[in-house]
Design goal:
single chain, alpha/beta, 7-stranded mixed beta sheet, 7 helices, 7 strands, globular
């Protein structure tokens, strides 16, 4: 059983922001495999289903980004998920818009949601898919950049990236993180 977590902020207010690329990717996976994400528990919204003959839990923490780890920890503890069955998807300013990076493990970089997850579950050894959103022209505008509305001309580029992210998740489940890295990086 896999726990697949998309990081973001509550969609009602933040659905159209760069910081919600994890949620967008999870939503695409849920749609393709007919999984409803409508249950409330673990400080998040979640749904269960099957992806490529593997049982999965799809989780969207509702704690706001900086406390995402609380939701992840609660779900991992409840379902007794081992770190090698955790896949996290989130936005990354250090990757060009439209690109993704799959990694087996690593630090959180500058991402506060990832910092929270690593702190709460006490390990860096889990798969992650980073959805590129690029860097704002002025770094002092970073907060507005990640939680501000996505301009129309950028939406198609980010849609492509979240579709690639969804495919990378499927590849991890079908044939492992290394194969997904070889295919998508």
């Amino acid at each position: 059983m896999y726990l697949i977590v998309g990081l973001g902020n509550p969609e009602e207010d933040y659905g159209n922001t760069r910081h919600n690329m994890g949620f967008h990717t999870i939503n695409k996976l849920a749609k393709q495999y007919h999984i409803e994400i409508n249950k409330k528990k673990f400080k998040g919204l979640y749904g269960t289903g099957v992806v490529e003959n593997e049982k999965v839990i799809l989780l969207k923490p509702q704690t706001f980004m900086n406390l995402s780890g609380e939701s992840v920890r609660e779900a991992m503890n409840f379902y007794k998920i081992e770190e090698d069955k955790l896949i996290l998807i989130y936005d990354d300013i250090d990757i060009q818009p439209g690109m993704i990076k799959v990694r087996k493990m690593g630090g959180p970089g500058t991402h506060n949601g990832m910092k929270s997850v690593i702190q709460q579950i006490n390990t860096k050894n889990f798969a992650r898919i980073r959805i590129g959103i690029g860097m704002p022209e002025q770094k002092e505008n970073l907060i507005n950049y990640v939680i501000g509305a996505i301009p129309e001309e950028e939406k198609k580029i980010l849609e492509k990236a979240t579709t690639l992210g969804k495919e990378a998740i499927i590849e991890i489940i079908k044939s492992g993180v290394d194969n997904s890295m070889n295919k998508f990086n």
